Amino acid sequence: MANVSGWSDRMDVNERVERALVRHLRDRARPSKLAAAVDHALFPGGARVRPCLAVGIAIACGDDRPQVTDAVAVAVEALHCASLVHDDLPCFDDAAVRRGRPSVHAAHGEAMAVLAGDALIVLAFQALSDVSAEAGERLPALLSIVADSAGMPGGLVSGQALEAEEVCVLEGYHMAKTGALFIAAAAGGAAAAGGDVALWRRVGEGLGAAYQIADDIHDRAGASGSLGKPTGQDALNARPNAVDAYGLDGAVARLKSLIEETAASVPDSEAAAPLRRLIRAQVDRFVPAHLQAAIA
Amino acid sequence: MANVSGWSDRMDVNERVERALVRHLRDRARPSKLAAAVDHALFPGGARVRPCLAVGIAIACGDDRPQVTDAVAVAVEALHCASLVHDDLPCFDDAAVRRGRPSVHAAHGEAMAVLAGDALIVLAFQALSDVSAEAGERLPALLSIVADSAGMPGGLVSGQALEAEEVCVLEGYHMAKTGALFIAAAAGGAAAAGGDVALWRRVGEGLGAAYQIADDIHDRAGASGSLGKPTGQDALNARPNAVDAYGLDGAVARLKSLIEETAASVPDSEAAAPLRRLIRAQVDRFVPAHLQAAIA
Fold it and tell me: Which of B110, B59, B69, B270 lies closest to A114, judged by CA?
């Protein structure tokens, strides 16, 4: 648990993630217009929940190969940003605004947005490749975790594609669209540090499910623009939303039990408290104040 | 050289590539609309030059881990098809036709075309992940070769992005847009079989350069539709073309010397003859008959 001090101060973990993103991107960001679009997609970031989760879990597992941990954090954040860039394109959500400023295609054009997303998907694997020597015998598990979280049949790309299917089951949609990357962050953080991948995968599943329900509640009951994005988008884009499925009270109750179960599933250690805080923080970010009393 | 019979009959190599593509895609092609778009992008293929090159070079190196060879072949073909799907999008070439039939976005819509390209990029890495146990100590080199051929700074994505730069040097553009994947096929085929990666990388560089010049000559002097795509596209899209840079005679002379040098750089072995034929076949496919006499 040598590096747990890096996680006890949450700011350190965020800074570590930012430094890792810069490090893996810096020497390869070319040509200039593509580099600018990729930079726009990655910096400044949102809450960096996924990479912070990966780092936090790696720390809980001992973080004995910190360069490998950092690469996993970069991989999950790069995939997340890639999916945002492509989801915002005119042929999907046609979102002109992301995180309170122009989306990548609004600022850099559609062509550069498509390529920036592509480059970010590849960057996830380049980050793993950058640390293949340090990763050693852990590389196969990391490659599998990252690739499957992104691709078919159950990763991000399939999750996004589910929106176009006539029958889109809410759980399967949430699992692929959101859960897959939380699972990759959790399982990848554990695998980077030689931890118990199956155990931490379940934590990722729980947090991913909670995150998606919280996001759905925000989309229906939150203040537009309060998280740097408009609300009401699911109805506008005919996407499944947990509030439709369970009602607002039902969704809030479901979120509450998910948060409790997931926080309880974190094994006790010096790193447990900040991880549980990270999990509970998803409520604070997404759920409107007047509904938080029902969850706390 | 146990498997050289698989290469002495060219049909066998093509069939091996098709089977490998089906094998790595089959169990993960979901959901249905995305699967249909990916299938459209991959089947039926074009000449499968890159994966056949990878398999041919692996055979020349002994092909002692054929599953790993196959995965490399799938990876380079998946990346190639991904780049075609995204390059055809309205925000790039806006090509309604590819290989004599509707392009992916024309047939499946823009959203599915974006996602199919994304899924194919990821499939390249899933294919490597599928054989990580067999690849063993060769996995890091394979991951590096495949990732760098696709991403920044010198891979496919950067090559496509160079089209948007004010100053686009022809050699750098060709190297990234076309050369990178030929290099990955050659170096990856060698790495899959434990061969001399640096030596075969040079063969890939030569073939990639020859292929791009042949393609440029076809675009300027070929019959429109004769390769399943219209000619004159480089001028229409203001892309650099070797015929502008060197003149038609100069481009043909350059192609001739590249083909000779590249064929000569193939080390003598039982597999050398079919590999040299593959290299020369790029002339037959792309260069109009009335110009071939100058090359033969």
Answer: B110
B260 half-sphere exposure, CB direction, 13 A CA radius: 9
In the numeric block, the tokens 């002097």 are attached to B221
Q: What is the DSSP string of A19-32?
A: HHHHHHHHTT--SH
What's the CATH code, domain A5-292? Answer: 1.10.600.10
Nearest to B30 among A109, A139, A158 (CB): A158
Q: Does B162 touch chain A (CB under 8 A)?
A: yes
Q: What are the distances in angstroms from CA B39 to CA A37, A253, B124, B196?
A: 30, 42, 15, 34
For B251, counting Cβ atoms within 10 Å of its Cβ (0-12 exposed, 13-18 middle, 19+ buried), the class is buried
Sequence-ordered list of residues with C-beta below 8 angstroms from that of B268, at least 6 positions apart, any chain: none
For chain B, what are the domain ranges? 5-292
Question: Which of A130, A6, A139 minimizes the C-alpha distance to A63?
Answer: A6
User: Nearest 10 degrees: CA dihedral of B156, A125, B78, B184?
Assistant: 60
B288 Cβ contact partners less than 8 Å away, ≥ 6 residues apart: B217, B218, B221, B222, B223
pLDDT in tens, chain A (296 residues): 344 445 655 559 999 999 999 999 999 999 999 999 999 999 999 999 999 999 999 999 999 999 999 999 999 999 999 999 999 999 999 999 998 999 999 999 999 999 999 999 999 999 999 999 999 999 999 999 999 999 999 999 999 999 888 887 888 888 888 899 999 999 999 999 999 999 999 999 999 999 889 889 988 988 776 776 678 888 888 888 999 999 999 999 999 999 999 999 999 998 899 899 988 887 777 777 888 777 66
Of A27, A33, A123, the CB nearest to B164: A33
SS3 category, A185: helix
CA-wise closest residue to A20 among A80, A78, A81, A103: A78
Q: Are strands A101-102 and B97-98 parallel, antiparallel or unpaired?
A: unpaired
ipTM greater than cut 0.90: yes
**The one-letter amino acid at B283:** V
Do residues B37 and B116 touch, judged by C-beta distance below 8 A? Answer: yes
Which candidate in B152, B158, B169, B237 is best for mutational testing of the A interface (most A CBs within 10 A)?
B152
pTM of the entire predicted model = 0.94
Residue type, B85: V
Six token digits for residue B139: 């996995």
Q: Using CB atoms, which residue from A112, A122, A132 is nearest to B151?
A: A122
**Cis status of the peptide bond prior to B44, with omega within 30 of 0:** yes
Query: Inter-chain contact A144–B150, Cβ cutoff 8 Å?
Result: no
The Cα A88–Cα A61 span in angstroms is 36
Reported as a single tens digit per residue, the pLDDT across B33-69 is: 999 999 999 999 999 999 999 999 999 999 999 999 9
Residues of chain B positioned with their CB less than 8 A from the CB of A112: 161, 164
Cβ contact, residue pair B126, A147, below 8 Å = yes
